[in-house]
Amino acid sequence: MTIQEIPTVDIDETNGVPTAKLFGTIAKMRDHGELAAFRFSAKNEWIEGTASASTVHEWFGAGAEHLHVEEFRLTADHPTLGHGHGPTPQEHVLHALAACITAGIATGAAARGIELTKVSSVVSADIDVRGVLGIDADIRKGFSEVRVDFDVQADAEPDVIDALIASATKYSAVFDMLTSPTVVEVRRAAV
Amino acid sequence: MTITESNTIDNGVNVEALLGAREMLSGAPAAAQFTFSATNEWVNGTHSRSTVHEFFGLGDQQTHRRPYSVDTDHPGIFASEDNGPTPPEMVLMGLAGCLTAGVASVAQNRGIQLRSVKSTVEGRLDVAGILGIDPEVRNGFGGIRVRFEIDADATREEIEAVVAQSQKRSAVFDVVANPTAIVVDVA
Amino acid sequence: MNHPRTTDVVVIGGGQAGLAMSQCLTSRSIDHVVLERGESANSWRTERWDSLRLLTPNWLARLPGWSYQGVDPDGYMSAADVVEYLDAYRRSIGAPMYTGIEVTRITSRGGRHTVDTSDGPWSARAVVMATGACSNPHVPSIAAEMPAHVEHVTPIGYRNPAGIGDGGVLVVGASASGLQIADELSRAGSDVTLAVGDHVRLPRTYRGMDIHWWMDAIGQLDERYDEVDDIDRARRLPSLQLVGSSERRDLDLSTVAANGVSLAGRLVGRSGHRAQFSGSFANMCTSADLKQRRLLDRLDEYAAEHGLDAELSEATRPAPTVTVPPLLEADLRSIGTIVWATGFRPTYPWLDPQLLDRKGRLVHDGGVLPVPGLYVLGLPFMRRRKSSFLDGVGPDAQDLAEHLVGHLACDVARAHT
Hints:
CATH topology of the largest domain in chain B: GMP Synthetase, Chain A, domain 3
Order of helices and strands of chain B: HEEEHEEHHE
Helix content of chain B: 25-40%
Number of strands of chain C: 19
CATH superfamily of the largest domain in chain C: FAD/NAD(P)-binding domain
Order of helices and strands of chain C: EEHEHHEEEEEEEHEEEHHHEEEHEEEH
Number of domains of chain C: 2
CATH topology of the largest domain in chain C: FAD/NAD(P)-binding domain
CATH class of the largest domain in chain B: Alpha Beta
Oligomer: heterotrimer
Shape of chain C: globular
CATH architecture of the largest domain in chain B: 2-Layer Sandwich
Strand content of chain C: 15-25%
Number of domains of chain B: 2
Strand content of chain B: 25-35%
CATH superfamily of the largest domain in chain B: K homology (KH) domain
Radius of gyration of chain C: 23 Å
Largest interface: A-B, 129 and 129 residues
Radius of gyration of chain B: 19 Å
Distance between the termini of chain B: 45 Å
CATH class of the largest domain in chain C: Alpha Beta
């Protein structure tokens, strides 16, 4: 079973989501569970100080290695203590959360035949930096709370939109990896 | 912790400022309350664009040097157009960036000169969760692996200690490894 | 080896499902026996906590040829009441019940089924498994990660606050059982934390009528399994956050929190001495509130369509769940007991494992197993949304009895060709 065998004919497309193709992919994976095992990866290279650049290009899924259409590159830094090379890594995570739920809203709306006109959101997260700075061991290093506020305009009742947002949140990969503990294993590569 | 000989090594981390901040913030907890934020705008399909510019900290509104925008999307297999990395990949990038920044700071603080720091971050994702195929599969990564390649003026043990300490100084590591409360509302 | 006794149908289980099936078979003159491992209505005698009352009002306890005739049709029976109710039913229908019988194995060959028991084998042309939906509590694998000092309890083993040891209590699961037990323990003085995942909340009464009156009226309880979009999901829904009480009080997260219960997200891990809870609590509450709102909207529509607005009181909507920041962790050193209100997964150790799916669930189509002559009764949303309720086994038993009659007739036809 290869990615080429997954149907590419799009019968219809809502919100730019070709739903038939998506459902086709889901059906194939339902019957062949091993196709659902994906592995994403990023490479990072330190620049200077607190700045580094991450790239993503390769990924594995549906039984094969793949490449993104191009190598995507993002830099990260710290605003006050860094040199302004880029947003902070925490902000990358906030991007990821908003984008993940947004993609879920678009897909979920498409599956229900709802046309979206606009989806925008503001994510904000509180962090007491005394945690990362090692000033107080009782303060966690990361965010104490993350808030995402959505503005969704669509041809649907407010109730339906609320349900769309709640559902996209519940099934979001990034929402899950942040709300539940995720095992992170950090090691030095074997020389 | 004592300040080691930092005038002989330079990883680009302003340790004086860092330690100064620590001292200042110990006595002024309110100044330590930061709020980061991003705005996101849906483009089409699974493609959206986020921007960061302002944040709050040290008791005041702050701004980045300039707005930073990032596109995210999904690759073709998800019936998308691959306009940017996927959100899970962005989390990996954030994690790598945070740990690497931590490595640089800790190394500087310990007087270790870094020559190069590279890492590969991998996350396993069983998409049967997000695709609604199996409710017992979690939606996020089953596990994340980070592998550092560090060339530095230090013993293997010292470098491993730096890597271990960087995890304790990483906000993103904490947010991913431990549960984080998220509230999603309609504006 | 004992020579098997013979009958047309063996019914396994002497609770409401087994008795309902027995009545349906008797009324069709089908020869059968009912095998019960304890005394009749065993689980109601031995596996319910002291203060338990049915979630459904008494008038919704209809069985084939039987209904509540007592003085409190809008009240909620206790477990002891249910035992009495089912005992009277059993006597009235003259169910051919054998008690104290443990079924050990069912083997099917050539249209006949051999049911091995602790009292010797039976040979039958059909078997109906009516052991119920709550035979085996499901305790998630995370339980094994908890420290050794913690006592583990399930709703089946729980009786009353006096039976709970010292220390804080962590109740896992915000279903009806979880909420009721958390509430009772907190009011008795325990330090209770409730871990909340997916849940369904509803008011006890709406516009003056019991919520089950509404669900029955709009036909939701009779919704068929083949009419629902995602039947697997519907079958997995946790029990409604309700309690049966004479005051008809509501039971939801806000009320238990007001009674001293600390709310946390879903239990998701253990790290050292800390139990970890998901940060998704707000999303769980929002989802439950939205679902409740949608149902109440439906009820209002029904009332308007049927001209009931004049008789019913004004619609007062329950307040959204109060979501103060939930606990993300708890210190396991101060937890003495964990109550696992995490649902049930019936097991069928006497069945060929090939009849179960890879998760150990019975494979069936509305109660009809792929092996001709094997049936199951009483599972959640088996044929109807109310399949696992007292009021639901009757209609399902009638359906399966009809199917069974057809099976026996084919059997006879085959024997004569």
